[in-house]
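I am still getting used to backbone structure tokens and would like to learn alongside you. Please make up or recall a protein chain and show it to me in full. Would you write everything just below, so we can both look at the same thing?
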Amino acid sequence: MRKRAKLFWWLLSSSLTFLLLLPIALYFLSPILAQKGLEHWLQKQEFSHVELVMEPPSWDSLRIEKLKLQKNQTGKQITLSTENILLRFNPVDLYLRQRLSLIQLPKSDITITYLTDSIETEESNDLIDLSNRLPQQWFKKIPVDLIQVGELNLNLDYPSDTADWRFSGALLFDGEELYSRVKHYRNNKNLGWGDLKLGYDNHFYLRLLENDNPFITIDGALSYTDQLQLNSTQHIDVAGLQRWKNKLFPTLTSTIAKQRSAENPLIINGQLKTQGITNFPLRTQFTPDALLGSIQTQQQINANLSVVNPTPEIEQAKAELNGHINFSLSHLKASIDKTSTLTLLNINHAALSQPIQKLNIQFQNTVDVDLNLAKETLKAPLSPQIQPLKLKINTTSINLPDIAIAPLELNLNLQKLDVMQGDLQGHAELQKVDIQLQKKQQPLINLSTEFKLSKQQLSHNYTLSSPDLPVVINGTTATDITTFNSRFNWEIKPISLATVDTPLRKYFTIPAELSLKAGSLFHKGSGQFKNNQLSINANTSIRTATIGWGESLIEQLDLDSKTALTPSGRLTDTGNIKLGKVTNGIEITKVSTNYSYTQERSKRRDLVSLKTLTAEILGGRIKVKDLEFDPLNPDLATQLDIEQLDLGEVLKLEQQQGLSGEGKLSGSFPLRYKDGEISVNNGKLLSLAPGGKIIFSPSASVAAYAATNVGLKTAIDALENFHFELLNIQLNYEPDGTALLTTRLKGSNPDWHNGHPIDFTINVEENIPKLLKTLQFADKLTRTIEKRYR
């Protein structure tokens, strides 16, 4: 009995001791057991190089001093290193719900190294599955109430042909919201900080920061139908985005910078707001570049942008753009609303005397742009397709040397626009272009042109007109934009001279004596600009024109002119002029001449040549010998030949009633023109055989007066039937307008004094700048006869 009792107490005491020692032993052995168990599990998951150091657990916490492991997969290697992990838990929750209260990681490093030459051959099990990635779905699968990561470093090391990425930051998860602030690097370039917030209600919030100032903000909500979608609003500070782009693509930025001067750097400022839906694929490669490249987005856009120094000629450009885009890595489709505007400020060019202060471009219709980005992956040129667009372009005043153009409004309609091929086709129109030439108002101009650019050849079909003048010019041009060699031609619609007489006086200085009364003007031409040299050929014609000059009248004027400008700068104009009749006290008819004008810049010489100048006057003919002179400094000498001048027509100029004559006169007048003055030296007119006669039948009043004056009656009696055998006139005309006319008259009156011969000389000195008084000698002749035979 005693033995049994002793055995019982020994067993009881041994059992109690074992039960007492077992927890103590398990407590001290638990790190080893846990470590061995976790190492075994990690090895089953194909992790290698496992290093795990744990402290003995407390009743509500567990500390892991060190955890380091590595996993090798086809083409990549994953390495994890972390220290001082703290796990807190409620034993009951841990046992019943397998849930922890806290996971705290002061620092963790994860490196994923891709070992293959290309990551594009990843197996499908290496792709990210986004089909169950809504926060509401995976938040509740996380068996932790609170996760705190003080510093998490994620390194994505890709092959040489793919950019490396590194993310470094903190993370906080409380079951309702995940928040992370991360600094991100691409190829070791610091791209700044980013804030990410995910809510259990699928709220998504992302900010990219520059010096704690957000330059990109995305605020929206995630949802899932056939794809993972983000319905969000984006706010983008363009200046910050540009600096971020410079870090992200330094090679591209460097190339652009080399093309610009340090004094005029390209600066972009402004705000971009978008709102829309972004779709993520269900499965994608685990690279940021691939993830970004696989998304699709549809966004409504509102942008206010400012670009400083967009080109050397433009100081600033401002844009207000509204529209929407549909974007993926392979395709971009954009639509710009007609409310959009583009403004260029302070446009300067070498041809301008001062900058154009403002040029505003207003869209008149919605513009659609379609861009196939898939070709970019093949490094082929992009080929944007732009639908027809209409623009209204307004400018402030444009100032060229000696030319001032008032603000313009240009309506531009582009029916075809191929950026990559450099092709475009459209219509442009300018109305009422207000021009001042040397501060003098010019007629308003309307311009309408159809243009086409194809294969670097720019062609125009244009019409120029004016609301102030009845003038219409039609023309074409063709220009090689690589060399700026051009061909062009133009034609003026026939102009009625009478309709332009009054309007022309408003804009051009026209002598008051000149008037255009009738006739038509025809003009056309062509030319080319080649190798920086200009050549022109033009034809001008005037038909049946009537032109007045004071009391003078030119009728039935016909002109044919050919003008040529050679590449050397030699200008010639040749043609012929015909006048039906010129009336200026004396009637001149059938005027005809050939002329030529030559200007040679190289010799600094101008030359006018007149050939075969002929006319009919006073029943005879006149002819001027060929002559040449410098029109800018005329100094010429020629001879005026007169044939078969009708004495009867000459005497009619006296307008003396009853005075008439018969006979023909011929001769020549040597003419000299110098310093704006005309002179005649020893000009002669001589009657032709057999002579002629002068008949004076006075009116009753003159006869009555002559009856009281013996001398006058004698002169009248002699001239009643005077037959001359010689009439010789010699003329000297001085530059001051004084004409010395020496006239010798020889003959008789068979009815007076039995035909007594008469031979006498008359000298007449008269100033005749306005009238041809050299032929008006009848009165002087009468007085001379009276004096001699009184």
